[in-house]
Write a structure and sequence with these properties.
The protein is mainly β. The protein has a domain at about 15-200. The chain is built from one helix and 29 strands. An eleven-stranded mixed beta sheet has the order 1-2-3-6-9-12-15-18-21-24-27, with helices on one face. A ten-stranded mixed beta sheet has the order 4-7-10-13-16-19-22-25-28-29, with no helix packed on it. The longest helix has 8 residues, at about 55-65. Mean pLDDT is about 85; it is low at about 5-20 and about 20-30.
């Protein structure tokens, strides 16, 4: 089932298939809709219908983020663009910045064979498979495969973003992070599956800078599995500014990472609510640590021995 954006509380209007959609009741005007089909599309099309779709996701995003007919990014509050992607394999790297853009994969989720599968195995120096910055951005119902040493999703800045119902399949050898969030300000990552990153499933950090914010945001209901030595499920690094931040109801299995692995690590000297997580780690490993307070009502299996409701020390 495809969950439409939290911004689309109204009904789809009668002309949405011609390139517009009602965003919510009382919204003045229609959001632009663009369509992508990797088999039947062409980047020379206008992308405004399934009959004339773009061939690549990047081409659609390049149009969706601009003021109509210009190369100027539309940052007005009433700008909304939706990019609907037909099921198929898209062998491309995607990089963009913008505001109020909703990238929605059609088809079944999770799984790369019957939904939207983004496969990028370019040079190791590439920053990510899917990277973006901006505000009000939504990524949903996408499958991302990574086989080189970079993250699946990289968020380099912005706020009020929403990543949900996505699968990130790392190769277990090279791919570093499922997601690298350099900003979690007012943002939510939820209901995603992350497989076999080598360093961390989700990392929250701005490469050592002191301007990474994890505030008014949440990482919740995700499934993370990793088996590289010393791997971390969710890692909040020391330089983050954190408050009203929640890590909750995640299922994390890093038992294959050995004694040096951690399911959750919060190094920020701030209060992050870490609660109701189900954690599996190997012999000698610590399920979770936090430099602040707020860790309570979590459950862990340490080499098969179950610990229920471990809290702050």
């Amino acid at each position: 089932m495809l969950r439409f954006s939290r911004h689309t509380t109204g009904q789809l209007n009668s002309s949405w298939y011609n390139g517009t959609m009602q965003v919510y009741p009382g919204y003045q005007g229609d959001a632009m809709c663009y369509f992508v089909n990797g088999v039947h599309g062409n980047d020379g099309n206008n992308g405004l219908s399934w009959e004339r779709p773009f061939a690549t996701i990047q081409a659609a995003l390049n149009v969706a983020r601009y003021l109509p007919g210009t190369a100027v990014i539309d940052d007005t509050k009433d700008h909304h663009s939706f990019v609907f992607v037909a099921p198929g394999h898209y062998n491309e790297q995607i990089l963009f910045s913008g505001y109020n853009i909703h990238l929605i994969g059609c088809g079944c989720w999770p799984g790369k064979d019957y939904g939207v599968s983004i496969n990028y195995d370019g040079a190791v120096g590439a920053p990510c498979a899917l990277g973006f910055s901006g505000s009000g951005l939504e990524m949903a119902n996408l499958h991302i495969s990574i086989a080189t040493a970079f993250p699946g999703i990289l968020v380099t800045g912005g706020d009020n973003n929403w990543i949900h119902d996505c699968t990130i399949e790392c190769d277990g050898t090279n791919a570093t992070y499922g997601m690298h969030m350099q900003s979690m300000k007012g943002s939510i990552v939820e209901d995603c599956i992350i497989e076999r990153p080598t360093l961390a499933g989700i990392r929250v950090d701005d490469e050592g800078d002191a301007d990474c914010y994890f505030i008014d945001g949440a990482i919740r209901r995700n499934m993370i599995h990793a088996d590289t030595a010393g791997v971390i499920g969710i890692n909040v690094d020391v330089n983050n500014v954190c408050y009203n931040a929640v890590i909750a109801e995640n299922h994390i299995d890093v038992a294959g990472g050995g004694a040096g692995s951690l399911a959750i690590r919060n190094q920020a000297a701030a209060n992050v609510m870490i609660t109701r997580n189900m954690l599996v780690v190997g012999a000698g490993a610590t399920p979770a640590t936090s430099a602040g307070i707020g860790m309570l009502h979590n459950c862990a299996s340490v080499n098969g021995v179950v610990t229920v409701e471990f809290d702050d020390d």
